[in-house]
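=== RUN LOG ===
request id: a7f3
mode: sequence -> structure
chains: 1
length: 381
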Amino acid sequence: MEVIELTKALISCQSVTPKNDGVLDLLEKELSNIGFDCKRYLFSDSNTPDVDNLYAKIGNGAPHICFGGHTDVVPVGDLNAWSCDPFNATEKDGKVYGRGASDMKSAIAAFVCAVKDYINNNELKGTISLLITNDEEGPAINGTKKVLEEIYNNGEKIDSCIVGEPTCPSKLGEMVKIGRRGSFTAKISITGKQGHVAYPQWTLNPIDSLTKILNNIISLELDKGTEEFPPSNVEIVKINSSDGASNVVPQSAEGTFNIRYNIKHSKESLIKTIDTIISEQVKNTNYVSNVEYNNSAEPFLTNMGNFTEIIKSSSDEITGLSAELTTTGGTSDARFFKDYCEVAEFGLIGETAHQIDEHVKLQDIENLKEIYLLVLKKYFS
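=== RESULT ===
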């Protein structure tokens, strides 16, 4: 298939996490036709769904460049709000519409077709691979992380990786992501004493303590950022209390917040800061506190060098823009690759990712394929 045809075929698979719906079969067939050796990895874990993954490789030895991506997509939301069937890729006004168009089936198609063109016209002196998971938008437990562990245990070695996430705000070629902030989540539980709201002397309202703790946390100025990273930020994402009537002081209350943090912090330093705030608030009281921490991603930064310059110069040459090397945005599977090789992210425009009527320009898909092709030419030169 050519790049637009392949994009539309991938979009038409209803691969909402962790459902496969034949999307990896389609990719495996296309890659096998090019000459890739394909292997599937099905992983399981407690309290998470089983996930199918694909690792495809062509060539031997160094240098080894890998394309990392995901075929799973988020749910479509209100189906009636879409102007077209989200799983029947629709072309109109020079764009293709459908769930996964931006994030990130078009980028996968672009890389597959770029590799095909490269293999057909050049002698490959090294290795090209694709690591494609169907578990990036979900728990991300049985996907890229476990595939990397498995292939490295079997002697694989990747030198460089491009993750095809949509990295550009409004124009293809604006940004290359060379790092990401970490993601740290905490759920604070405060237990007080339930009772009638008319008799506060006989109650201990956990919401009072919780809100003071959360106010102290969101008032923190964690840092002012670094040359490479924006400032760390705290966002409260959930507050709730135990069930009860409107005239009952609840027994307990919970608050959850997330910190996106840069390299000035670590999981340990954030835990120490939060623990201090909580202990100061509840000391000498009858409140009982508990906190659960989850650090789903560490911050990382890929040093600017030959690899990042190849991506930037290839993008600049095709688009006529000057790509900025940044660390903005959320997390991606690049957080797993960074433990094994140098990694950067480059893909399409992310404005409509996860939205109703998700779409990308057809010309941008064609141009992205040409950028990836130029990256391969420069990488193996």
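=== NOTES ===
Residues 101-121 form the longest helix (21 residues).
The domain at 3-180+299-379 is CATH 3.40.630.10 (Aminopeptidase).
=== END ===
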